[in-house]
Amino acid sequence: MSRRLVLVGGSAGSGKTTVARALARDLDAGWLQLDTVWIAMKAVAGPGSPAYSLLDVAGRMARGGDSDEEVLAAHVAASEAVCQVLPEVFDFELEARPVLVADGAWLLPSFVAGLELPDTEVHCAFLQHADVDGVAEGLAPRLGGRPPQERHLRMNRLIWQYGAWIRDEARARDLPVLDPRPFATLTDRAGAALATG
After folding, report:
1. DSSP category for residue 143
2. In sequence order, which ranges of 56-108 are alpha helices (DSSP H)?
3. Which residues are registered as beta bridge partners of 31?
4. Is 60 exceeded by the pLDDT of residue 163?
5. In this model, does residue 197 exceed pLDDT 80?
């Protein structure tokens, strides 16, 4: 295999981007945040369209009004939509850089387990906090020192529930799952799990 794709999945606040950026640097690889793909898909769909509504998980979470189960189902459906375009995106990126690290909450274990790209070795690990407090800790820097409000606590809970679903799906497919804490050792542990050393 002449190409290598390293995928880091998991929910928001789990350290995916920190790990992916470090791995890309260590491997002299390209780096792709899958939020870029998601944002582009939303922009093309345009507000008010069915495709935009499907992809607007963040807006659904922020607006409230849906049950936890409805938000989880919506997040999974949006991730399925993003995963549909990823084989072409990865193939294109790997033409420019034969080693690519990509991270995002949009990676579904079922997609990763079935992903086949020509002449490409695929490695993947998922990151998931053991409890919702880990999500709160991981996302705290985004609050800029402000105390969390009720909406933040709800978002943390919904994010953790999606991550727990991803974790269970990954384990069912024998894909590695790591607890982000302690953060100080996460990059080394992820590198070992991904066999990138």
Report:
1. G
2. 57-63, 68-96
3. 101
4. yes
5. no
pLDDT at 1 over 60: no
Instruction: List pLDDT tens digits, range 7-17.
Output: 999 999 999 99
- Is the distance from CB of 68 to CB of 137 less than 8 angstroms? no
Residues in a beta bridge with 4: 99, 121
Domain count, the chain: 1
Query: Containing H/E element for 166?
Result: helix 150-172
CA angle 73, 160, 12 (to 5 degrees): 95
Contact assessment for residue 17 and residue 165, using Cβ atoms and an 8 Å cutoff: no
**Residue 8, strand partner residues:** 103, 125
Query: Can you read off the two tokens belonging to residue 6?
Result: 């390293």
Written as six digits, the tokens of 35 are: 């939020």
Tokens (6 digits) for 169: 């799906």
Distance between CA atoms of residues 122 and 101, nearest Å: 10
| Omega of the bond leading into 182 within 30 degrees of 0 (cis) | yes
Q: Is residue 18 part of a domain?
A: yes
Order the strands of the 30-33 sheet from edge to edge: 30-33, 99-104, 3-10, 120-127, 177-178
- CATH number for the domain harbouring residue 117: 3.40.50.300
The reported pLDDT for the residue numbered 147 is: 87
14 located within any domain: yes
